[in-house]
Amino acid sequence: MKKILSSEITPEHLYLSRREFIKNISVITSSLSVLSACAPISNLIRTKNPTKLSPDLKTDELGNPLNTFEQITNYNNYYEFFTNKEKVAEISKDLVTDPWKVEVSGLVRNPMIVDISKIKKLFEQKENIYRLRCVEDWSMVIPWTGFPLKELLDLAEPTSDAKYVRFLTLYDPEQMPAQKDNLFPWPYLEGLRLDEAMNDLTLLATGIYGKQLLPQNGAPLRLVVPWKYGFKSIKSIVKIDLVKEMPISLWMAVSPGEYGFYANVNPEVSHPRWSQTTERRIGELERRPTLMFNGYQTEVSYLYANLDLNKNY
Ligand SMILES: Nc1nc2c(c(=O)[nH]1)N[C@H]1C(S)=C(S)[C@@H](COP(=O)(O)O)O[C@H]1N2
Ligand SMILES: [Mo]
User: Fold this and answer.
1) Which of 77, 108, 128, 173 lies 20 to 30 Å (CA to CA) from residue 65?
2) Which of 118, 122, 112 is nearest to 27 (CA)?
3) pLDDT tens digits for 152-173?
């Protein structure tokens, strides 16, 4: 049997870069020594270089062809910029996404403010081909690069009081023109139950097709929750809070009868104004049947075993 050297479990340069990371993040409340001492030596740090998408990956796990980079970056919902999906790319192109800081706080042992460049160095960037189904009726298959949200949350160490995760998008009306009018209660806010947030499928994405995310897709860091309607996948995140109470998302605040907290893709529960049984895959002519949990039922149905999905839409 091959002997496992401790250096293979935690390669020294990674261990050192982790310590470097811990030293450089702004610690909000806990003392630096406490933070270093608590920090588990885990597999949080693996590689510094984002993996490029393998050229042979052309379909998702159900055999659906990937959408093209052109499609993914030119048909976007991003209400802070504009409601016309074909114009968001142009209007958002100058959003400054570097430097960018993300605060992780609330009910955590290690509150922190992390620079996006550090996040990209710290967490291994893997390819994840996930289907994104908009609540409106369209969908795409997107090769994201990113890492499970769980990895960042593990570093922050939620306390036992933490039951939900609340996310906020940047609020900057100078850069995001639609934030100047009060049509929506800005900033964009979303939430997940902690166990949903800890599921392996829940991703923090930093790229598409191995390239850096563009502003229209939520640069520099956006959530991807592939079994939920697209609006849960909040873009350009600046704050992640662990909280006790269920957060009221922007869409729940705007129209509670139409948008609930869970927003699981579910062909059996109609939106009050339209059916959710089929979808239009961008680039295809024939509509497709929408799948329960967007096709991820094996991975996520355990989360809702005791929930009435008609009430908890
Ligand atoms: N901050 C913010 N995040 C957002 C939105 C938004 O308007 N603002 N739109 C959501 C909706 S409705 C969808 S369908 C997806 C679209 O993501 P995409 O443009 O990358 O395909 O982003 C979601 N995240
Ligand atoms: Mo959407």
Assistant:
1) 77
2) 112
3) 999 999 999 999 999 999 999 9
Ligand 1 pocket check for 76: Cβ under 6 Å: yes
Q: 188 CA to middle of ligand 1, Å? A: 10
Q: Is pLDDT above 60 for 275?
A: yes
Task: Check if the beta carbon of residue 228 is closer than 8 Å to that of residue 262.
Answer: yes
Q: Where are the domains of the chain?
A: 6-304
For residue 58, the model assigns a pLDDT of: 86
- Residue with CA nearest ligand 1 atom 24: 234
Surrounding ion ligand 2 within 5 Å at CB are 77, 134-135, 230-231
- Structural fold of domain 6-304: Sulfite Oxidase; Chain A, domain 2 (3.90.420)
The answer to whether the CB of 162 is under 6 A from ligand 1 is: no
Under a CB-based contact definition with an 8 Å cutoff, are residues 191 and 249 in contact? yes
When the pLDDT of each residue in the chain is averaged and rounded to a whole number, the result is 88
Could you tell me if the CB of 78 is within 6 A of ligand 1? yes
Q: Which single residue is written with the structure tokens 């509150």? A: 111
Q: How far apart are CA 237 and CA 218, in angstroms?
A: 8
* Model confidence, pTM: 0.87
The half-sphere exposure of 105 on its side-chain side, counting CA atoms within 13 A, is: 15
Q: For 22-26, 108-112, 206-210, 306-310, which range has the lowest pLDDT when averaged over its residues?
A: 22-26
